[in-house]
Specification:
The chain is mainly α. It contains five helices and no strands. It has a domain of about 80 residues. Helices cover about 45% and strands about 0% of the residues.
Length: about 150
């Protein structure tokens, strides 16, 4: 006969007591998944150091303000002007093209991270103006709609 040992009441923790630990474990798991996705899918050159550039503004919109910037008339021309030199056929990042809505949308969270942390465009390359940067961030925060 197998006997179950009683667990002392004092060792049981309420869900509220374990919430901080679960949050930390979840954050670490998501960070590891993100790193693995980036390295396996995008390649190491597309996944530089995750720390922001020194003079990078802390300007991520806190929420989506409607209407979201238009992909067709506003966002696409910004990507064409600042990203396609490298992220198109013949560019140094041609394996990670950003020339179509579908290509951008499929990696929108990585694009948001790269733009927000000022890691893209690369240092020495032309960069979006402050207003263009805000339009890109707002569009991405709004879920990158195809509008």
């Amino acid at each position: 006969m197998i006997r179950r040992m009683a667990t002392p009441r004092s060792s049981l923790q309420s869900p509220e007591a374990t919430r901080p630990l679960r949050s930390i474990v979840m954050a670490l798991a998501l960070a590891m998944v993100g790193c693995t996705y980036c390295e396996q899918t995008l390649g190491s050159t597309a996944c530089p150091d995750s720390s922001p550039v020194a003079d990078c503004p802390n300007d991520l919109p806190s929420s989506c303000v409607m209407p979201a910037p238009s992909y067709q008339t506003t966002v696409s021309p910004i990507f064409n002007a600042y990203c396609l030199t490298c992220h198109s056929s013949g560019g140094q990042e041609s394996s990670l093209p950003l020339g179509s809505y579908e290509e951008i949308y499929s990696i929108r969270s990585e694009v948001l991270d790269q733009i927000y942390s000022c890691r893209m465009p690369l240092s020495g390359q032309p960069t979006p103006t402050t207003s263009e940067r805000q339009l890109l961030l707002q569009w991405l925060v709004c879920g990158a709609p195809q509008n």
